[in-house]
Amino acid sequence: MTLFDKPFDRRTLLQGSATILGAAAASSVPFAGAFGAGFPDGDISVTVPTRAGGGADRNLRAFTGIWKKYLDATFKPDFKPGASGRVGYEFFMGKKEANGQNLLFGNMGPEFLNWVVKPPTFDLADLTYFARVDTDPGAIFVRADSPFKTIDDVVAEGKKRTLNVSTSRLAHPASVGLLALGEHTGAQFNLIPLSGGKNTIAGVVTGEMDLGTLTSGSVAAKGAALRTLLVFNDENVAGDRLNNAPTMNQKYGTSLPPLLSSRAFGIQTSVIKDHPDRFKILNDTIKQVFADPEYKEAVIKAKGIWEYINYGDMDDTAKYLKGIEEVGSKFKPLLTGKPA
Fold first, then answer.
1. Distance from C-alpha of 66 to C-alpha of 289, rounded to nearest angstrom
2. What was the pLDDT predicted at 8?
3. 3 state DSSP class of 154
4. CA distance linking residue 294 with residue 42, whole number of Å
5. What is the pTM of this model?
6. Which of 58, 199, 215, 271 is the most exposed place for a label (fewest CB within 10 A)?
7. Residue 114 — left, alpha, or beta (φ > 0 → left; ψ -120 to 50 → alpha)?
8. Mean pLDDT across the chain, nearest whole number?
9. Which CATH architecture does the domain made up of 138-252 adopt?
10. Among 181, 337, 325, 333, residue whose Cα is nearest residue 256
11. pLDDT tens digit string along 275-318?
12. Topology given in CATH for the domain delimited by 10-135+262-336
């Protein structure tokens, strides 16, 4: 069993939930009407393990602004930044009631990469990400007037001196990409975590940092103020919004896996087992959001990249997390500064 395996089979669990719901629908009308009735009862609280104003906030508000059309509830984001996401996760798993009305909206990439480096106090099997919202690749960027015009300039200078690079947190897919670049080219980089995307970008804009590495959606949102030099994905699907920057694999012929941040809704695993009716309501209404053309409008209005938006279910998130575990295990010495 790997770090992210669950002590149950997801497909069997979902099939069991469907059986229960099907039986309810086939029974007497009063029972069927009561099944799931009253949910949600009040606000949906969404714990966000980062500060307001960043990529997670932008994605959450765009999504819930449409979701409320289908789920009769008001969404209340509860931002809990600190310790690379640990504060928010510990709060959610330790304080929030497992009733379906408390959700977590996290960035699976950096936050679960953090668990690879140092496991949390709670059992990861007790948390399930059930709906992926996006896949946002990491990127290397500089401010618009930087003397580094291409990634070749960065590598050439990095072979002469150690370059200071801002990152939102050390255990981050974009950080892994930067370290992999150094490992491949021989350029020297000093990763400096600045706690959050806003600070990461600010460190570059003010000139305190030579360059930065972050999720590309946050970089693109700054428009002409920044210039992207390299993307850690199979393809730069954002095109000129990321200055048509090459991917690392395209540029260097490497076989690095996509290094993505991926925002997703999480829930206590017990809710899926104990309240399948409520879980079905959440799942069904989430899918309606992706099919709603107003969602695309909301994403674009929030300066998001529509090409990054894509739904993923529990199986998709489980597969993604296992990939994060593999990447994190490979680069763990570089993320901790300790020998493997």
1. 6
2. 40
3. helix
4. 24
5. 0.83
6. 199
7. alpha
8. 88
9. 3-Layer(aba) Sandwich (3.40)
10. 181
11. 999 999 999 999 999 999 999 999 999 989 999 999 999 999 99
12. D-Maltodextrin-Binding Protein; domain 2 (3.40.190)
